[in-house]
Amino acid sequence: MRRTPHKHIRGAQMRLICAEIAKESPDIVAKQNLNSQELLIEGHDCTQSECENPDTAPGMVLPFETDFLSDHKVIRSGDEIPVLITAPEERLGAAVTAMNSIHRNSKANVVFNIVTLNESVVHLRTWLSKTDMKHKIIVFDPKILAGKISKDPQKADTAKPLTFARFFLPVFLPDAEKAIYLDDDVIIQGDIRELFDTSLKLGHAAAFSEDCDSASSKGIVKGAGNQNSYIGFLDFKKEAIKKLGMRANTCSFNPGVFVANLTEWKQQNITSQLELWMERNAKEDLYSKTLADSITTPPMLIVFYKHHSNIDPMWHVRHLGATGAGNRYSPQFVKAAKLLHWNGHYKPWGRAASFSEIWDKWYIPDPTGKFHPIRRHTEEK
Questions:
Q1: CB 115 within 8 A of CB 88
Q2: What's the confidence (pLDDT) of residue 30?
Q3: In the chain, is it the N or the C terminus that has fewer CB atoms within a 10 Å radius of its CB?
Q4: φ, ψ dihedrals at 141, nearest 5°
């Protein structure tokens, strides 16, 4: 019998969470999807009985209240392309900017599935009401991670709940057969349909860009050792890792951008496998001691070892957030890239990132005024 990846999220627990959200935000109703056990937050003026009992709440799509970019509307065509992206409160501007870059560079029928925490729902909805981007907001319950992440206080900052949302794709997208996952610190310059159309080999549940076969392979993360191969992420002295028989010099991949075949993902119980290795690491400390902040990478490297497809390297040009990124890539190469990823310390909404002017092009100001990029010229005024 196949194990249900999220059997630990019981219906009663989900109803309790729904009720708490409805109580805290009377203008929002939490809708429980009983089939997927996902929690969607959707705009709706609900009655008291509806809000208190999410099982009877109307299943309506989040309304898109649009008064921004009305002159730029285009006719969207084709089947829906599900894109999942996370949006922590302090980085909402990153997610909205990444989404806008996709939206404005494609005529595809993209649906953005934004995973956030309950505290950010109202802020995010206010921001997105100024756009015409088709979206759903999904609330992530950190309780799902109990017993799966290290309790080491030194690692607490890197173990932020939303980082692990990518592991639960089928839960958030129960009806999708294929989907794209994106980190929030990206800008898309190509047509997202091209990435979505990436061909996955038979039996493969995901496609990534490997760290050894692209211009991004030049990037060595300062202070984190060589993170182009498995030995940069996993402790090969540990017996549990030795028993897997993996080669330490195997080229790694970056899971910040990937295309997933969710049918294969579910059939192979990928989520359960990832959860298993999270639990084992929490108990046995299996990750490399030189690991930087890529704590989601090691379990994915194990589960997808020599069993994944590849995406076009130009669809994941990364390390733009690393030291010296401005010297690593020419402006011509950056302009030609289909997707830019500022993984590393320096983010494009911060003061010292390279190529931040590209990110600024797609930034939509926060109507609440809470989020704003830091720029040298604004400090000098």
A1: no
A2: 35
A3: N
A4: -100, 110
